[in-house]
NAD-dependent epimerase/dehydratase family protein
Amino acid sequence: PILIIGACGQIGTELTIELRNKYGADNVIASDIREGNDSLMQSGPFELLDATNYAAIEDVVMHYDIDEIYLMAAMLSATAEKFPMRAWNLNMNSLFNVLNLAKDSKINKVFWPSSIAVFGPNTPKEGTPQSTIMEPSTVYGISKQSGERWCEYYFKKYGVDVRSVRYPGLISWKTMPGGGTTDYAVEIYHEALKNGHYESFLSKGTKLPMMYMDDAIRATINLMDSPAEQIKVRSSYNLGSMSFAPEDMAASIQKHIPDFKISYAPDFRQQIADSWPSSIDDSQAREQWGWEPRFDLDQTTEEMLKNLGN
Ligand code: VAH
């Protein structure tokens, strides 16, 4: 069986649905610090679980005979700047708990998400390479860079089968994202439908690597299903699909809602976004485990407006 820690989050919610479709609801245990929405709670087993509590995770692992853990709980970039020590504690101790369960052979495979936030202001911005300068300037980015180093260490030293991707900004409609710098790319669709206007907290020209959630979920499961010998990167894989700025999203939305207007009021998140890459070189993911994105910006816009508009 699989345990998803952080199953109520933006990615966790959709991973839970997809993995339950694939393996059967009773083989996928959802857990989070708080209960989720009705559809999640009614779709299979759920446990209230604090990701920083080793004994509590171990209890769930033993009770359900868990083989694999997807650790999706974290404090994201914008919120982490407001609570640095809480973010460090959650993001790092949850990872140590899961890596140590694997090191002690209580589970045998781990997925842990990294992020383009591991890159910093002096990282090459276009076609950011898999291995390059990484001086993250956010608490979240520092925690993800440290987490990558620990994942690779546990693989090399203890043979822990931990796998990871550096997610770009993710766009989805099933849940609202929580506390990210790329959340503008989700909010814009809600606002476009509600009042035909969106005031973006990132300025015009802020180009970031982004991905539609269906692609991100497919990449995650594809990586976890790949034979271990194909996985040459045990820190975290660059993963890319599209890159765009707020004005590109507005143009895409205007193909469906011609009167939609965007305005700009950059806030503290602008500085975070400015420290991140504009586009990503994900050739190693493509070569080693067949990564291939499917959704571009217009297809994403169609999906978002169709599903949010109902
Ligand atoms: C955030 N959505 O904004 C997350 C992600 C690359 C962005 O890490 O913090």
Remarks:
- The first helix runs from residue 10 to 23.
- The chain has a mean pLDDT of 97.
